[in-house]
Design goal:
five-stranded parallel β-sheet, disordered N terminus, 9 helices, 5 strands, homodimer, about 200 residues
Chain lengths: ~200, ~200
């Protein structure tokens, strides 16, 4: 076997733009950040459905599919929280390089971890969505009962209660789900995202 | 915001079959195993090109995009070699669940690590391709100069020289690239893979 002779041009892996061409879309990373209970999952799931209905293929990464798989061997120690975001970003990069519209819904509480994600995925690929629902509303919702546990001390270092959340300094969009209906927020997201992913033919 | 009321059916993430429908293909994992220099990368790259030409969207994972990214913080210690394969398998699972035809080209030298990958990705999704080129041919090629380093002792625990390679017990196909041209091997792979990924309309 002599690859060089048999596959003179074809011995390189297909590129992202080859795949974007096949899929008829441009890839991007949509990174949802915000407190627990702010509405990141709800908005990202709804956005994926709307994009899917328009023919866009997406991959949504969230705690459910990441913490149970690639990151199942990580704790919530400071070092592991950084490693958690690093791996999420590296996985996201692989999806973006495949031409896929990729979304992540993770608290990602500090400018440092969001900058880490952005630097791995590439700033030019990165759309930052700040789900800015006030903590009082998130605590009232307390869908998973986590705020209650954080206040009782059962959960240590819980973002917003016993661990800081840095507001993003320059998000592409901020959405407060206590002030807007899901459908309205998703409409704003579509207006932001579609120009970045649609492929002129 | 009350998700339950606003999105009564739409608050669940899209499924693999939704995505397979959109992409017009069925997802599968094609796992290439074999010695360094056996031709795993060459065959997988060529297979991806042929599938792409037929309209299938694929993701090829290999040492270049994995060791420089998600697995850059792993060494070649026994524990890290297992973690290397575990992470590759978890990433592959995320791609397969997105409806993507996923390929991995990794030495993956033991039945244990291949079984680990298979158990994570799911046996029903797993096509095992054994690139069975004899070690004498791989050593003669020595494209990366690794066998020379392994024999001089510069590289420790090198598969096939100072570390074992278990032949797969029941691969879906075995291909010896010293006996077949790339094009012929790829043709056999297409005959194996296409019935698994084509979507009847």
């Amino acid at each position: 076997m002599d690859n060089k002779e048999i596959y003179p041009v074809f011995d390189k892996m297909l590129s992202r733009s080859d795949k974007e061409e096949l899929l008829g879309q441009k890839a991007v990373m949509i990174w949802f950040t915000g407190l627990s209970g702010s509405g990141k999952s709800t908005l990202s799931i709804a956005l994926e459905r709307e994009l899917f209905a328009r023919g866009y293929i997406c991959r949504l990464l969230d705690g459910d599919n990441i913490r149970s798989g690639i990151n199942k061997n990580l704790t919530f120690s400071p070092a592991d929280r950084i490693e958690n975001i690093r791996r999420i970003a590296e996985v996201s990069k692989l999806f973006v390089e495949s031409g896929i519209v990729t979304m992540g819904a993770f608290i990602s509480p500090t400018n440092d971890v969001r900058d880490l994600a952005k630097s791995i995925i590439g700033e030019e690929n990165f759309i930052e969505v700040y789900v800015s629902t006030p903590i009082s509303v998130c605590e009232d919702r307390d869908i998973k009962g986590l705020y209650k546990k954080a206040h009782s001390g059962e959960l240590k270092e819980f973002t917003g209660v016993s661990s800081p959340f840095d507001e993003p300094m320059n998000p592409d969009i901020s959405l407060d789900t206590s002030k807007r209906e899901v459908a309205e927020s998703v409409e704003l997201l579509l207006q932001l995202v579609i120009p970045r992913i649609e492929k002129k033919r």
